[in-house]
């Protein structure tokens, strides 16, 4: 392991400038300007900063918390004060999760470039680290935390304090024994290398050692044949086991001698088990593995509701950042609520509320820049249009001018479609979803038509049903407005169409018609006619959006809607929690491209599928999922109080058809977040596996109050790998908690 005192990055001019420190202006608004001193710490992993009026009190943040650096006016703040600061002096640090951005202004363009290049170097260095390097880095961080007086060594007293930080309450005699064994120099202190030895003894994985020895012929290594047998018997890899065993030895075995002998040591075995190859998520399903040539109606499409909002629906901030973050997460259907703005400029905000406003042109510029950075498959702009005729024309022109060739303006082959095109055919295209004058059959319509030009009306639902919104601003315009030809002509394959009933839609519906339902209306239909709803969604696209009463930007459970094949289930992406975990889980497959092919049972419009009676399927084949929850590793603390250590337990939740919904949990382990061992087995019957999601949740047990969330991981049932697997936990925001993980053994069999 590299010495903890050494820098983790090669010498670099930009980094030296950052280490020397800079006075940077933190930009928050036109009215607020604050100077702060920022500098990179010698560890090259921490940025320290303090206000100009502060004495020597520095605050810090980790370089690892920064996801990206943007140059110039690439944020709401800089867009709002663009005339005050030259773009060459401006840059934005974008943090992971839902933490706000940091907008900074340097004294010169050269200084800004030094920070931009330096941060990019540090971020790239972290991203290029292998699993072994990340673990070394983590151990190095632990040593630096423990070495409070910075003398390059730690005492037993410092080790005891470190154990509390590491979430473990260890018997003092045992800890002292390990300390003495690691203290090779017999000085009563541990140097950096001795600390690595201490750490390895402390975190020795007995359960992995036992598994290793069970398959090892000599008790010391796994021969090629030993590893092949493990892959065949436990990991159920079948005929590919022999070839894969050799690949794994070359990939994960740290010893060159062992590699040459085609053997694997315990270190290599552990490295394999904690790698992507040993993950519960089948890496083959993380690539683009699905057929992308089916009509759009046959896909679940990652969709966002009121994408512009970063907070609540009443007073929250509107921001282009909402669009950037949604697109980075693979979202393919964005919502834009458009209203008349001053000076003839359309604005985007949640109408009839106190949410802030942003310019429509800024939203479209943002979409143009970020639409295809994460996925090359089509982006759909769901336009909620409340603008006057004059500003609708402005909207249409902005869409054409800014998006250019990316904007789909005609059908692919110039003909009226009998079926929707596929994501593959629409690669790199941006589609407008909205009301349309006539249909694609009447593209020569000239005159504006009056009618309801918006597809959803959250605010009217909120006004009708909520007693807490009496003071909301009203809008003098009537809900029925004229739709201009200019905007109508941009709606090609995604025409908003009012839903009457299933029979009417079956007889009169066009393949490009899209109906929108509030969650309450969708639930009512599911309760009364789930099979008909599923059949309807095999023919046309349906969008479901949250109730207007969810003023806190909370979400509904999307699984209920996916069960009947609803393609666009729009969620408030800004709100973390179970619902977004499920959404991220479903769309984590297929290269996170934002499109997931629906199961065959939901694509066949001729064969009726009843979600309430899965056993009526011709190919009904329920499965038994058995999960042995073995252990946990390096779980994070949830309480920063000194001496506070978690009492973790694991809950496994199944989401899918009503018959598959289930929850089971382990017992809790007292005072051990470092290496808790459960060795408990949970069993589930899964009737429709192709629609099921499995969510693993770790919580801190509390007898008196609500349990605290520690981490979670959600995976589609169809993407699970059998055998001994690690589950790498995610935070509430969906960001990685590495090296926190669970170790499980998965077995899937047919129900008898």
Automatic annotation (TrEMBL):
Keywords: Calcium, Cytoplasm, Endoplasmic reticulum, Glycoprotein, Hydrolase, Lipid degradation, Lipid metabolism, Membrane, Metal-binding, Nucleus, Repeat, Transducer. Its cofactor is Ca(2+). GO terms for biological process: intracellular signal transduction; lipid catabolic process. Residues 16-124 form the PH domain. Residues 603-731 form the C2 domain. Glycans are attached at residues 185, 187. Residues 443-480 are annotated as: Disordered. Ca(2+) 5 binds at residues 700-702. The active site is at residues 305, 350. It is an enzyme of class 3 (hydrolase). It is found in: Cytoplasm; Endoplasmic reticulum; Membrane; Nucleus. Residues 134-169, 170-205 form the EF-hand domain. Substrate binds at residues 433, 435, 516, 543. Residues 487-603 form the PI-PLC Y-box domain. Ca(2+) 4 binds at residues 645, 647, 671. InterPro entries: C2_dom, C2_domain_sf, EF-hand-dom_pair, EF_Hand_1_Ca_BS, EF_hand_dom, PH-like_dom_sf, PH_domain, PI-PLC_fam. GO terms for cellular component: endoplasmic reticulum; nucleus; plasma membrane. It comes from the Eukaryota. Its EC number is 3.1.4.11. This is Phosphoinositide phospholipase C. It comes from Pygocentrus nattereri.
